[in-house]
Write the C-alpha cells for this entry.
Amino acid sequence: MAERSTAAVDVADTSGEEPLTAKAGQATDDGAEAEKVSGGEKDTAGSDETGAAAADSQPPELHSGHKLARRYRLEECVTRLDGFSSWRAVDEKLRRAVGVHILPADHPRARPVLSAARSSALLGDPRFVQVLDAVEENDLVYVVHEWLPDATELTTVLAGGPLEAHDAYQLVSQVSQAMAAAHREGLAHLRITPGSVLRTESGQYRIRGLAVMAALRGITCEHPQRTDTEAIGALLYAALTQRWPYENDAYGLTGLPKGVGLIAPDQVRAGVHRGLSELAMRAVVNDGATASRQEQPCTTPEELAKAVAAMPRIRPPETTFNTPPPYQRTGYQQGTYRQSPARNGQPGRPTQAIPTPPPPLQSRTGKALKWSVSALLIAALGLGSWQLADTLLSLEGDKDGPSSSHTTGGKAKTPANKPIKIADAEEYYPDGKPQHPGQAQDTHDGDAGTFWYSKTFKEGPDLNPAFKQGVGLIYDVGSKQRISNASIGLHYGGPRTTVTLYAASSLSPSEPVSSMQKLGTAQTSQKTAEIKLDKPVKAQYILVWITAMPYSPADPETYSGEGYKQGVTEVSFTS
C-alpha cells in the first residue's frame, strides 16, 4: 500500500461541513490510502505529471476574514492539499454558513472542477449537498456549497458503534437511490466514503462532493457505476459491522484480518440482519454473490436500489418504555406487628391478639346471598345465549336473500364495511421514471408518520401528460376481494389532488392505465381522499393513480423544493 505524503494538511474529506484540523506531518484517517479504496478508482493526486503540477500550483495567501466576491467571508481553513484549500465561510448576503473550495486559476484541475461543480448544481437533487456557486475571478476558481451544521458524518456515527438494521437499511436505500438518479444524468461521485455521507437529525442521509470531490483529487475511473456501487456496499458493510471491508484501516474503522479475504458481515458480527449482509456482499464483491444464495452481483446503483426495494421492509425497532419498579412489600413481620415498644432493654409485651374474622359468606345470610347471585348469573347466561342464536339466525337469513332478511321497522339491516388487509405494495411507473419505490410499503404499515412521496413538478395542479401522465401505487390484497370504498391519506393539502382507482392485472403490470378497469375517482383539497365505488367490484390488485397535485412549499422532511407534489401516508380498502 503506497502511502500519500502527509506533509500537507489533510482531513477525511475536503467538503468541510464539520470543522476539522490536523497538524502538518500528522496522518489522518484518509492520510494513507491504497489506490483501490472502495471500488477501483485511482487517486492520481501527486502520482503523475498532473499531480506534480498541482503541487507546484500553490494557492494564494488567504486568511480568515478574506472576502470573495465581496460576499463570502472566509472563517476557517479545514483542508490544504495539492494546491487547493477548503474553507468554512459565511455568506454575508444571505447570512448563512457555507463551504468554499479554492484553487488558483492556473491549477491543472481548475477547469475540471468548474465543470463538475456546474454539472452537479444543475442536478438539483436535495439528497446531495448542493453546489451554490462556481466562479472564476481574480486569478481564483472557487466553488461554494451548502454547510449543514445539524448533520453528522457517517464516520462520527460509526465511531459510536454499528447501526441498527433499520438505520442500515435506510442508509443503503437512500444512498443507492440518490446515486442511481445521479448516474442517469451522467454524474458519478467516485469517492463515496463514510466522510462524504452525512446523517441529519431527521434520519435522512445526504451525500457531499458529487463529481466535485473526484475533480479536486484528480480521480478518474473506467467503470464509474461499478465504482460507486462497490463504495455503497462498503458503507453498508461498515454500518453493519463497524469494520472496513478491506485489510487496511480507514475512516476510523479497523480493517479485516490480513490473508483471510472478504467475510460476510453476519460472520464478522453476531446478530447482523441476514438480508442486509447478503446485499452488502452483492455490492462489494466483484465476481458474484454470497456463498449462501449465489445471487447476481449488483454492478450499478440502479441495480442495488432495486435489490433494496425487493427486500422485505425492515421496520424500526419498537420504543421501549421503562417499567415501574415491582411492588415492594412492607417490612412488617409476623410476631412483631402490634407489639408494644421495648422498655429498659426488655422486649415489649405482646398485646392481646385481635380475633380473626370468619371467611366471607360463611354465615347463613352469606350463603343465601351466594345462591341468589349464582341464580342470576345462570339466568343472564341463558338470555345472552338466546340473543346470540337469534342474531346468528338473522345474519344467515340475510345471506339467503332479501326475502328472508331480518327486518326491524320495515328496514333491512346493512352490515358495516369490513376492512381489507393489504398484503403488498409497489410503485407503478409505466414511463420507467420512478419516484421513490422503496417507500411503497410505508403506505400500509399502520404508521401515518411514514409515507411515500413524489418528486416536485413545476407545472400543476394537473400533471403535464407530455412529461408525466401520473404517479401511482399498486396494492395486493392477497386474493380477489369485494372492493366498495377506498381511503387514501395524503401528506400535503391544498387545491387540488385528483386520485383514481383502477383494477390491475398484477402487482407489476405491463399494460398502460388506459387499458385498466376504472373503479372510481375523487378530487380533494384535504389530506384524505375518499373514493366510494358506484358498484362493488372484485379485484386483487388495485392501482391508486394520482394525476393532479397541490402546490406546496419546500419541505425539509422530504428535502424537496417548492412546487407541485404529493405524498401518500396510509391507504385502506373496505368491502
User: Anything to note?
Assistant: The CA atoms of residues 436 and 498 lie 19 Å apart. The first strand starts at residue 42 and ends at 43. Residues 419-574 form a domain with the Jelly Rolls fold (CATH 2.60.120.260).
